[in-house]
Amino acid sequence: MSRGGTSIPDEEWERFLKESEAGSPGAPEEPSARARMVSRRLQEEPGGGEGWRTYAPAPRRRGRGWYAFGLAAVVAALIAVAVAPGRVLGLFGGGAGDAAPLAAESRRPDGPPDSGASDRQPTPDDPFRGSPAARWSDGAAGIHLPEARATGWMDRAEVARALDRTRDFLVASSLDPAVLRGEKPEKALALVNPHQSDVRAYLEKAFSAPDRENDPLLLFSRFRPADVRPVGDVVRTRGRIAFREGEKGAVEVSADVTYVYPVRRASGNSDEVARTIVRRETVVSWDDPKKIITEPGTFSVVSYKLDTTNAGCGVHDGYLHPAFLSDRTGADTDDGRAVDPYDRSRPIEERKRKPGDRRCDTATRS
């Protein structure tokens, strides 16, 4: 059979077409967050996969009694085995509380943390008062790292380094004081594979023209300094990191972390303290450079999910917008589900609302 003026046997031509579709054998592939997530979801949920952008937040939460207006893509929050205190990087600070600190969270808890003295309101001297976060650790110390072991293309030392750098990303994206003040998260962005074009396109739009689908809050915590300022210099955290072998021998690292940010109004003399609670589930892939186009020391984003409380319901301008008790009016209504932002016993996905449901959930505590 003649094709293009050259005589090629049918078997050779068919093999050529297959290899053209699949790419050159052994050549590194360009990473795609969408393709990775669809593949992952197909493996874990045989019913079908969703694209990575479907993890953008949908409904938000709004608080009753306790201020807890918020973003809520799906909700879920912290548990009850927090970490020994350790002042690491963070923002906002405050009293440690009288209760003993919890042990590190090495696995998903069985239920929500005990309500404790939830009627005790926070103060500038004790911004975590009345909250389960009073027993959590500060900053990076609250993010539990598992023991490394050789996995996929990496030996034990390389896996340990990948785990550390993944936590570095969480610190740089959700705890760095400059980022929390609204600055661009340059240190965090430097850890993202520059060859991952779909994620790079999302990030570029998220910081230039944020909207519901391209929201920087999906990966980064940011407040508008003209609106609020931190209380102290500590963010309380609760969460864990895990890893497994992913596609093409990659080391896939997942993180499930809740962050509690206490803030005050940027202007005026009010001592009222509000808390914004953010939970993120993030999955990244440390790829084998022989199989995936990547740069040393960077990972590819697989997926991310967001749940926030007291962060602004229906606002998509790239900032968290805490509300205060004094913002409440008699006209305010609570039309959503009652949810506990500290309950980390269920994945965010299980709390996801039906498509099109844009109501604000009601937080049971802050």
Which percent range describes the beta-strand content? 15-25%
Number of domains: 1
Q: What value does the Rg take, in angstroms?
A: 22 Å
Q: Give the count of helical stretches.
A: 6
Residue-averaged pLDDT: 79
N→C terminal distance: 73 Å
* Biggest beta sheet summary: 7 strands, mixed
- What structural category characterises the helix and strand content? alpha/beta
Pattern of helices and strands: EEHHEEEHHHHEEEEEEE
Please state the oligomeric state of the protein chains shown: single chain
Entry keywords:
single chain; 366 residues; alpha/beta; seven-stranded mixed beta sheet; three-stranded parallel beta sheet; 6 helices; 12 strands; globular; disordered N terminus
Characterise this structure.
- This protein is of the alpha/beta class and 366 residues long.
- It has one domain (56-363).
- The protein contains six helices and twelve strands.
- The chain has helices spanning 10-22, 33-44, 156-174, 177-180, 186-189, 197-208; strands at residues 2-3, 6-7, 61-63, 137-138, 143-144, 228-230, 236-245, 251-265, 274-286, 300-309, 338-339, 361-363.
- Strands 4, 5, 6, 7, 8, 9 and 10 form a seven-stranded mixed beta sheet that branches.
- A hairpin with a 2-residue loop joins strand 1 and strand 2.
- It starts with a strand and ends with a strand.
Topology:
Elements: E1 2-3, E2 6-7, H1 10-22, H2 33-44, E3 61-63, E4 137-138, E5 143-144, H3 156-174, H4 177-180, H5 186-189, H6 197-208, E6 228-230, E7 236-245, E8 251-265, E9 274-286, E10 300-309, E11 338-339, E12 361-363
Parallel strand pairs: 3-12, 5-7, 11-12
Antiparallel strand pairs: 1-2, 4-7, 6-8, 7-8, 8-9, 9-10
